[in-house]
Amino acid sequence: MTIKVAVVGAAGRMGATVCEAVEAAEDMELTARLDAGDPILSESLGGADVAVEFSVPSASEANTLAILEAGADAVVGTTGWTEESLGRVRETAERLGRSAVIAPNYALSAVLVMSFAEKAAPYFESVEVLEMHHPNKVDAPSGTAISTASRIAKARAEAGVPAGPDATQTDPDGARGARIDGVNVHAVRLRGLNAHEQVMLGNPGEQLVIRQDSFDRSSFMPGVLLAVRSVRGRGGLTWGLDSIMGL
Amino acid sequence: MTIKVAVVGAAGRMGATVCEAVEAAEDMELTARLDAGDPILSESLGGADVAVEFSVPSASEANTLAILEAGADAVVGTTGWTEESLGRVRETAERLGRSAVIAPNYALSAVLVMSFAEKAAPYFESVEVLEMHHPNKVDAPSGTAISTASRIAKARAEAGVPAGPDATQTDPDGARGARIDGVNVHAVRLRGLNAHEQVMLGNPGEQLVIRQDSFDRSSFMPGVLLAVRSVRGRGGLTWGLDSIMGL
Amino acid sequence: MTIKVAVVGAAGRMGATVCEAVEAAEDMELTARLDAGDPILSESLGGADVAVEFSVPSASEANTLAILEAGADAVVGTTGWTEESLGRVRETAERLGRSAVIAPNYALSAVLVMSFAEKAAPYFESVEVLEMHHPNKVDAPSGTAISTASRIAKARAEAGVPAGPDATQTDPDGARGARIDGVNVHAVRLRGLNAHEQVMLGNPGEQLVIRQDSFDRSSFMPGVLLAVRSVRGRGGLTWGLDSIMGL
Amino acid sequence: MTIKVAVVGAAGRMGATVCEAVEAAEDMELTARLDAGDPILSESLGGADVAVEFSVPSASEANTLAILEAGADAVVGTTGWTEESLGRVRETAERLGRSAVIAPNYALSAVLVMSFAEKAAPYFESVEVLEMHHPNKVDAPSGTAISTASRIAKARAEAGVPAGPDATQTDPDGARGARIDGVNVHAVRLRGLNAHEQVMLGNPGEQLVIRQDSFDRSSFMPGVLLAVRSVRGRGGLTWGLDSIMGL
């Protein structure tokens, strides 16, 4: 059974890549490409079962609500959501009997690194996070690394694991990096790289390294398609891909 | 509350390392060191709650049954178990109301790599396994790598994922390595290494790498101590650390 | 002083990327784009100082000779050269007082990995080569890996270093990979990867790993531009970038 | 021809490891083990051709001068040398027609990483250094990492290469690490690790990674033995293993 898919924000770089991925998927049909200014209605979506939304933070909530009102389920990749915005999407989806998936990261490898790091962290004495990006990135560390460190810290706190050992006494230039919730985070910027994250965990005599590489925009497509195939019938709001992936 | 621990096979290299680890653990007391020829009885175990068994395959089943009969729970690290042997340990433990943990690998990082690889494998087009060991190892690939590949293959088959893409037409010298249940496995032998495994998974635009390093024998101790702390009250036989670790 | 550069094979994927790189370089001017069938003459090259040739093996020697005859130096990226073809280019360049650079690989990182591996190999007991590519590649191992292994083997032989230790007795499925001149070579094929090579060297207690990643075609451009800037006045034929890079 | 070797500081951990390595080497004979307080004379050195010195910074210069006066060549692993101390060793060696090798690091892999990083650095837009150590280390970054960054910076300055690109605008917690001579250096501390260094270099579309692992003290032995075999006849002072290794 073919899933009818519309793309909102189809003129953007991510939106255009989603259009290509949907057209290449054997079980999907692209019914509409909408851009800024196009009305979001049942007709303009071409009778889509699911609409994928990649626009800008200032437009994303209104677009998502309109998608649900138009009778489609929503898969949203735009970032910058607040708890309040998410609450309004949840309420609208529940009221209308529709479903929305909103995820901060559609790279399956990134979702898995965070989940695996969280699961492994209570079993190791030491854990540190290294993120590597292209040198045009303006913020350090990356949002994904902050989120990873926070989830690691929470998992260790819940398991009663103490902070990792660190005898550092002199570090005049800050080589030990940032501490996010007690977890050291390091940011590398290198021409040629795109977006990469590595979590290192250590015990006496052993090390566990979990690493992901997003080489380009296409890395988000397997996650977007997975959400499109899974959104139907979930009901209300699903935040992140973890529950869809059984993590 | 202190756990009383006996070690069977205490003169061996692994057994000696276990004795050290038990003595260093604040919540444990070493009650006895037994070697080949020593009778395994309640008295000779020093009233141990748990006996850790690291001997040789030819002695391990008899030792484990004797531990259970002597009124202790068993944590067993010797390899080479058959289904029949495991069945006899399960029956004995259940009949006596005791518990046994038998694991093919006590390195937490190795257990996690296998479990994570299994969970991730259905979400990626490609997956290959690389194991690296010291050059004195006589078999290739390692048992852990074979087990990892089998679990990956099973998880992909159950999820209906096809074999990974591979256009190789000419490979006169076998550079593509072994195929274990359809998963390519590569074995590196290098002076200076001990035991290391790396699983690589690929999708369009992204890669996930899960790697573990066992630098020396001490890498097994966190897993042995975890089993000692968890065996009590589990009942019957627990195979591997996965369920103990909530994997 | 601006270098005038023509591109022969400008309609191909590599050629088109070279055109972009030349246009983006502040010290270069793109004077002509030639394709299959276009005559290669001083006028058609637009008075170029240097012509970059990326065509097909069947055309490359004739193109290169024509470039030299037309009064330009040549930088050639097409593969598949024989000793005889290289000899004719050398003779022609020397006769005309021109220079040609022909390299089997223009990725600087790949050139460096081979050179560094060769320099390091005599100092380590063990060395193995791992190459990783996209799954559409038809041959294994890669030409670069074969070349790397051969150079390693030669350097070790010249230094009187024995073969690396390897106690493998059972390897029923070929996990130990290919042996190229006595050096084990492993080939991984993974969706999402492009072209990557890793050389691992081991001694008691230490490991050296030299790795390069070519994420896409643009990885060849720094090497092509380096050759364009260096070819003038070298005289005759320069094979590979090693001598240009002082390796 | 067997080389007669004495060890000064034989009771220390490094000294004891050197004694084992010398005894295991087929081309060497251990003639004496000297410790703090033992006089260093031709007789007490047992007629050694070469004396290996691993003591403490406060004793090392006096020991080295005494070794040279006693008629042996010196291979020195103690750290903490000043230019003045080195000058006195050089003068003494030259005056007596003897030779001394003093190296800040005898791990061949570490020596090679520094040399290769220096050679590669001018060819890449970006370069960063990552060092990883056991968590008992009191200083960050490591001396080796500082030295590596300095050599990289010097090589780039001499080649006229500008600083690497970095658009970072917000980094409130210092995730970008230390800047040593304009090169970012990151320090990881992880239980289970010993001493590891990784240099990452990036260009458009490509990356070069040079990494070394010192798993334990034995990693210094191949370098010490190389120096023992090479010191004879060099004359004066040789600083570091680079020139011995032809780097």
From TrEMBL, chains A, B, C, D:
GO biological process terms held by the UniProt record = diaminopimelate biosynthetic process; lysine biosynthetic process via diaminopimelate
Q: What is its EC number?
A: 1.17.1.8
What's a Gene Ontology MF term here? oxidoreductase activity, acting on CH or CH2 groups, NAD or NADP as acceptor
Pfam families, per database record: DapB_C, DapB_N
- Catalytic activity annotated for this protein? (S)-2,3,4,5-tetrahydrodipicolinate + NADP(+) + H2O = (2S,4S)-4-hydroxy-2,3,4,5-tetrahydrodipicolinate + NADPH + H(+); (S)-2,3,4,5-tetrahydrodipicolinate + NAD(+) + H2O = (2S,4S)-4-hydroxy-2,3,4,5-tetrahydrodipicolinate + NADH + H(+)
Active site annotated at which positions? 133, 137
Kindly tell me the pathway this chain contributes to: Amino-acid biosynthesis; L-lysine biosynthesis via DAP pathway; (S)-tetrahydrodipicolinate from L-aspartate: step 4/4
**Which EC class does it fall in?**
oxidoreductase
Give start and end of each Dihydrodipicolinate reductase C-terminal domain: 110-234
**Subcellular location field:** Cytoplasm
Region described as Disordered: spans on this chain: 157-177
Q: Keywords of this protein's UniProt record, alphabetized?
A: Amino-acid biosynthesis, Cytoplasm, Diaminopimelate biosynthesis, Lysine biosynthesis, NAD, NADP, Oxidoreductase
Q: Where does NAD(+) bind?
A: 9-14, 38, 77-79, 103-106
Provide the binding site for (S)-2,3,4,5-tetrahydrodipicolinate. 134, 143-144
Which SUPFAM superfamilies does the record associate with it?
Glyceraldehyde-3-phosphate dehydrogenase-like, C-terminal domain (SSF55347), NAD(P)-binding Rossmann-fold domains (SSF51735)
The Gene Ontology CC terms held by the record are: cytosol
Q: What is annotated about its quaternary structure and interactions?
A: Homotetramer.
Q: Which PANTHER family match?
A: 4-HYDROXY-TETRAHYDRODIPICOLINATE REDUCTASE 1, CHLOROPLASTIC-RELATED, DIHYDRODIPICOLINATE REDUCTASE
* Functional note: Catalyzes the conversion of 4-hydroxy-tetrahydrodipicolinate (HTPA) to tetrahydrodipicolinate.
Protein name from the UniProt record:
4-hydroxy-tetrahydrodipicolinate reductase
Q: Which species does this protein come from?
A: Peptidiphaga gingivicola
From which lineage does this chain's organism come?
Bacteria, Bacillati, Actinomycetota, Actinomycetes, Actinomycetales
